[in-house]
Amino acid sequence: MRRYGKNPDEDDIRSRPNPKGNRPRTSIRPKHEDAAEGMVLTVDRGRLHVLIDDRQIVAMKARELGRKSAVVGDRVAVVGDLSGDKDTLARIVRVEKRDSVLRRTADDDDPYERVVVANADQLAIVTALADPEPRPRMIDRCLVAAYDAGLDPLLVLTKSDLAPAEPLLETYGPLGLSYVVTNRDDFLTGGVDQIRERLKGRITAFVGHSGVGKTTLVNALVERQRATGIVNAVTGRGRHTTTSALALPLPGDGGTSQAEGSGGGWVIDTPGVRSFGLHHIDPSRVIHAFPDLEPGTEECPRACSHDEPDCALDAWVAAGHAEPARLESLRRLLATRERREGD
Predict the structure, then answer these.
(1) Which residue among 8, 45, 127, 174 is least packed, with the fewest CB closer than 10 Å?
(2) Which of helix, strand or coil describes residue 118?
(3) How does 31-51 read in b/e, with b if 16+ C-beta sit within 10 Å?
(4) What pLDDT digit, counting tens, does each position of 161-211 carry?
(5) Based on the number of CB atoms within 10 Å of its own CB, is 116 exposed (0-12), middle (13-18) or buried (19 or more)?
(6) DSSP, res 19
(7) Count of CB atoms within 10 A of residue 169's CB?
(8) Nearest to 336 by CA among 137, 202, 85, 116
(9) Cα dihedral sign for 40, 44, 46, 47?
(10) CB neighbour burial string for 177-205, b if at least 16 within 10 angstroms, e if fewer
(11) CB atoms within 10 A of CB 6
């Protein structure tokens, strides 16, 4: 059936107006050169809290970013309502290039990477000396992730009033790691200056098992109260009270949006973890987290797996250059990586 008569021409064809306007569609996106730069402080159910100058604003990710996400520590470009008033919402239109990215997976067999924080330059590995018991393999995993991301590790030992720090320091002290030891009285009396000095002018991410006192320490450092929990007496594990990463300025930061050049610095409190998967890290780079063992690999045969009869690390450890527990930890990590590669 003809809709426009027997001999329709172009003048007979009706054109329907664009219901969304007459502007033609284009693939060219605005550059947003006038966008304000801010730092992501936390992410809550798709809403990002961003610090711009001396005020916090709430923003959402713009559609043009596609699947690219922003995480705590990211430097972002923001447009829209930047007043920070209640019920206002801005848009994040650009995520700037990251200086560093700390990643983890749920376990070594999980291919899904989780970005923990961006642009940190130091990783504080918080470990309790008791209640719960220290887990050296967890420390080793965090060290692998720190070195792979280009972060300086800082070992923070808590609850020294319950157990001595010397046994753990005998293992990690010779590695040249920076470390601090704290106890309950430090938190009660404000004696955390030794830690604050290690954080000054830096962006430090705090990681650790639930219940090790990580959030309690952060509260003492930044003079703020986030919820804390207790350790389960049966399982020896802590309860997750911190559910999202949060960047907090140290006193003396002066309200600036960046830690560089300021007297304070930033701490990023992250949720407690029960595992720190390394699926994303190439097995050949794991040895870099073991500086006490790495020199011993010079005598290893080509393509040595470091878990074979001709491995030179056995003689290296036997000569007293490193603790046997460190070699065991290395081989356990490499074994999980090899199983993943063979899947």
Answers:
(1) 45
(2) strand
(3) eeeebbebbbbbbeeeebbbb
(4) 999 999 999 888 778 889 999 988 887 776 788 899 999 999 999 999 888
(5) buried
(6) T
(7) 15
(8) 137
(9) negative
(10) bebbbbbeebbeeeebeebbebbebbbbb
(11) 5
